[in-house]
Amino acid sequence: MGLKAADFPSPTTVADFLTRRPNRDSLVVVVDEAGQIGARQMLELVRFVRSLNGRLILSGDTRQHGPVEASDALLAIERFAGLDPAELECIRRQNPDLGQTKDERASIAAYRRAVEAAAAGRLQESFDRLDRMGAVIAGRFDEQADKLAGEYLRLTEQACSTVVVSQTWGEVHRVNQQVRAVLKSKGILDGEERIVPALEKVDLTSAQKRDPRFYDPATVIVFNQPLRGVAAGSTGRPAAFLGNRLLVEVGQRIVMIPARYLDRINVCRPVELSLSPGDRLQLKANRKQSDGASVTNGELVTVRSLSPDGVIELQDGRVLDANYREFVPGYAVTSYGSQGRTVDYVLFSDQRSRLRPTTSNGTLQFREAEREFASSRRTKSSCAKTSSGQAKGSSRWKSSAR
Fold first, then answer.
1. Whether 182 and 244 share a structural domain
2. How far, in Å, CA of 187 to CA of 182, rounded?
3. Scanning 304, 329, 361, 378, which has the fewest C-beta atoms within 10 Å of its C-beta?
4. CA separation, residue 387 to residues 118, 126, 134, 306, 336 (Å)
5. Does 178 lie in the same domain as 103?
6. CB neighbour list of residue 158: distance below 8 Å, 6 or more residues apart
7. What is the DSSP letter of 48?
8. How many domains does the chain fold into?
9. Would the pTM of this model clear 0.70, i.e. be above it?
10. What are phi and psi of 60, to 5 degrees?
């Protein structure tokens, strides 16, 4: 469920908030998924809210994914700031009342117990519970994608909201292709198909954005916020590197971007996507469209129609302008990208064991059921054991600072 759907007024990103800097005394700022904020941005946020005599409420889980930028700010606050965090101990997403029958309610209750174990860091217990319920579907490597795509098709035919969570971008791309191929072969994607140019965001830190090794001749720079007279949504090409500054060619001018403003640009690679009405997309940039509607980074949306001029109408009535190209197929997302999102069903795809504490992140976003597709049951169980020993924080953080 998005923040707008949850009746939060005018939700925005931390970066956009710090750019606009609303000047209102005693402002109350609520930050969701605060564990993804790095130290530099957290310091800037705290200083700004303090300057307004405001209140900052940080909501997050330090056992889930931390920030891409340096330093895990929320974990540092939890351990060293001396605050007494408020706890939310009730699992709300897996609500047995959502079940239509007695068996469905019992199944959702069993899933809730598995989620409670994962939230407490008992990942092996959580995995064992899911395995006993038949939620872990093991098979040969060459069978995994077909089984997952078949389950996605079944849930789609039942009009359930579903997302596949994978651990790497390579696996995300593979699953997206497989799921779309199955939907197309079954006639669910039966409208006119168009080849649509898109810009795939390359996730780089500010330090990497200053390093020419991370660029190639096809690289496109997208300004996600206004900067140096360049409007948000404008594109350019990297021209040169001058110390800690990046020079970008935008139209007929060269724009110099100091290191402190590199978070206002996205580095992208151009790709082409085959799209039809009914296709799922994940949006990768915040932007206000020409009709006044806003789109948010990470949103999962469905295509209603495609115009020859590049305009894309979404099922919820919003329209993506022809110059908004920052999106990727949205059937599968990374574990990082799924964090904080809620759907009816999560399908967790894992090709092999990964030495990272990510299993709990793929187990917390569904309302009714989860399925885990692994290349072998032993591999998946091993991953749960490894992850349970590497949890870095606690799942109880829900606090406010003045």
1. no
2. 9
3. 378
4. 10, 12, 21, 43, 15
5. yes
6. none
7. H
8. 3
9. yes
10. -175, 175
